[in-house]
Automatic annotation (TrEMBL):
Phylogenetic lineage: Bacteria, Pseudomonadati, Bacteroidota, Bacteroidia, Bacteroidales
Species per Swiss-Prot/TrEMBL record: Prevotella herbatica
Reaction(s) catalysed (UniProt annotation): D-fructose 6-phosphate + L-glutamine = D-glucosamine 6-phosphate + L-glutamate
Cell compartments where the protein resides: Cytoplasm
The protein's assembly and partners: Homodimer.
Record-level Gene Ontology MF annotations: transaminase activity
Enzyme active site: K361
Domain of life: Bacteria
Keywords: Aminotransferase, Cytoplasm, Glutamine amidotransferase, Repeat, Transferase
Task of the protein: Catalyzes the first step in hexosamine metabolism, converting fructose-6P into glucosamine-6P using glutamine as a nitrogen source.
Entry EC no(s): 2.6.1.16
Protein's name in the database: Glutamine--fructose-6-phosphate aminotransferase [isomerizing]
Length: 366
């Protein structure tokens, strides 16, 4: 059932273009530029009435939630809080019937996320689930929601569920924004069109697997790795660091690139690999100067750049190219090399990538 792949994790990384097509099937129609989510049709009035959105989740799902915050705030102009379910449930948080709570969970069984839902329900908030496992506890506890439909995820480290969650959040933010009238037609149409091109662009990224396997060998020596990104790429940096920690047992931290100078840059020396998401977008020049600061301290930079970038390619130690896409969709492409990097480093170190020590696929206890 690994279909010729040595591990489920690698299979699931490579499945992503196909999974995302399944996730978008019947929901995205690029011919007529339209996103249709049945939950948004069924619960339109209540969704439009929401004054605030609270996303509750754990781990990788929480990282997807951070991307959701940017998407929803950008397109729908509704304030969004992203909460660790475990903190939210014990904090006596302010939740009202005017809130929309989005619970994100691959397994649909995470105990803290389920408890956060039960708490929010008591305040009368509408609960929207974004889950993978059909018929699991969280979808059953929610009022409505959208499945990510990426198929069973076996590898303990979450991969395709993350990109599936991001795609659902893109579709949800577009569908809501359209109903609210907070998005112009041009932007809406551009994002819908580009979404349909993402699976093929992901395939292009996956073609660099051998190259990433080669460069992974260089970095197995590391005891610490820093991941940097800004804007939509900041949660991707967090996710890249989590993947590396989980399966290779190398300590890794994700940071917003500009926070470097507020502390973490003290860690940089010639032993320190720094993975930087430095794609060509509004923040490019600023991230470029962060890279220069790291190189001035002899750090080893692995940069994710937009195809054709020459400036960063000249100063970074290693470069991975990504096809150009819209900034709000960049996480879908930038995540893939970070999954592969974590995977190959763990394989080089002879770790059990599908079943890392101390971790379980569903965390049904708190
Ligand atoms: C990371 C990972 C965990 C889960 C977390 C939440 O690779 O697998 O951090 O993301 O335990 O799980 P779900 O999404 O099932 O609620």
């Amino acid at each position: 059932e690994k279909c010729g792949y040595p591990h489920f994790m690698l299979k699931e990384i490579f499945e992503q273009p196909e999974c995302l097509k399944n996730c978008m099937r019947g929901r995205i129609n690029a011919d007529v530029d339209k996103v249709t989510l049945s939950a948004v049709i069924d619960y339109k009035e209540r969704l439009l009435a929401a004054k605030r959105i609270i996303i509750v989740a754990c781990g990788t799902s929480w990282h997807a939630g951070l991307i959701g915050k940017q998407l929803i705030e950008t397109f729908c102009r509704i304030p969004v809080d992203v909460e660790y379910a475990s903190e939210f449930r014990y904090r006596n948080p302010v939740v009202t019937k005017d809130d929309l709570v989005i619970a994100m969970s691959q397994s649909g069984e995470t105990a803290d996320t389920l408890a956060a839902i039960e708490l929010a329900k008591r305040s009368g908030a509408l609960i929207y689930g974004i889950c993978n496992a059909v018929g699991s506890s969280i979808p059953r506890a929610t009022d409505t929601g959208s499945y990510i439909h990426v198929g069973p995820e076996i590898g303990v480290a979450s991969t395709k569920a993350f990109t599936g969650q991001v795609i659902v959040l893109v579709m949800l933010s577009l569908a809501l924004a359209k109903e609210k009238g907070t998005i112009d037609d041009q932007t809406y149409n551009d994002v819908v069109k580009e979404l349909s091109l993402i699976p093929d662009k992901m395939k292009e990224v996956l073609e660099q697997n051998d190259k990433i396997a080669d460069l992974s060998r260089i970095f197995t020596y590391a005891h610490n790795v820093i991941y940097l990104g800004r804007g939509y790429s900041y949660p991707v940096a967090l996710e890249g660091a989590l993947k590396l920690k989980e399966i290779s047992y190398i300590h890794a931290e994700g940071y917003p690139a500009a926070e470097m100078k507020h502390g973490p840059i003290a860690l940089v020396d010639s032993d320190m690999p720094v993975v930087v998401i430095a794609t060509h977008n509004a923040m490019y020049e600023k991230v470029l100067s962060n890279i220069q600061e790291i190189k001035a301290r002899k750090g080893r930079v692995i940069a994710l750049v937009t195809k054709g970038d020459e400036t960063i390619s000249r100063i970074a130690d290693e470069v991975i190219e990504l096809p150009k896409t819209l900034e709000c969709l960049e996480p879908l492409l930038a995540t893939i090399p970070l999954q592969l990097l974590a995977y190959h480093i763990a394989v080089c170190k002879d770790k059990n990538v599908d079943q890392p020590r101390n971790l379980a696929k569903s965390v049904t206890v708190e």
